[in-house]
Design brief:
The chain contains six helices and seven strands; from the N terminus they run ββββαααβββααα. It has about 200 residues and is α+β, with helices and mostly antiparallel strands. Strand 2 and strand 3 form a beta hairpin.
Amino acid sequence: MIANDTGDENLLIKFGSNNYPVVVSLSEYKGIPTIDIRRYYLERDSAKLKPTKKGISLQLKNFGVLLDVLLENREPIIEWLVTGGDDHLRNARETLMARSMAEEDAKRAAHDQKTNISSWRAPSFFQVKAQGACDVITFNERHELTKKLEDFTASQKDDAMQLLSDILISYVRAKNLFDAPDDAALFNSIEYEWGLILNNYLKAR
């Protein structure tokens, strides 16, 4: 590791070449915290380190996946880095691929779920929060959709709520697989407008 001369107070570590180091830092993009791993270069005129486009920024969920893979596969990764060779590469790849596929399957597996009804002023008609291996979906009782569901008979309401919960929770979990900050902002805008337009359709019936 070499000295911090990037001017970045959020720098965690900087290592490698003095002229082309790899810099790991905490960052934020449009209010979303990330960890940034990036190649920098030494600008000759100013003698300051500047970031290149070669790097990646990770939000919490994808950083967690990467960290788990590195920790769980520390030994085969180090073995590959030390010894190399086709056999070691093949073994490391097979181990990493198997665990990566298991991680991907786990991210898409069905969770237990709970359904709540609450009230808020925004036109969105639902919220989903993960609590461990349980997804909690809350419907906005101010929204016309929730009001329509409340008018169903008990059996109709339970079936409709369960079906709608499955649809919306699976949508949110699919949305959460995307990691780019711009994606999060876009999804939030879509859901806001979606709730507003749906409310207007149901009021017009």
